């Protein structure tokens, strides 16, 4: 689950 959170964290800014 930790990986999912980290993935979304760096993916959010990248997507935006």
Automatic annotation (TrEMBL):
Protein name: Uncharacterized protein
Organism this protein belongs to: Nymphaea colorata
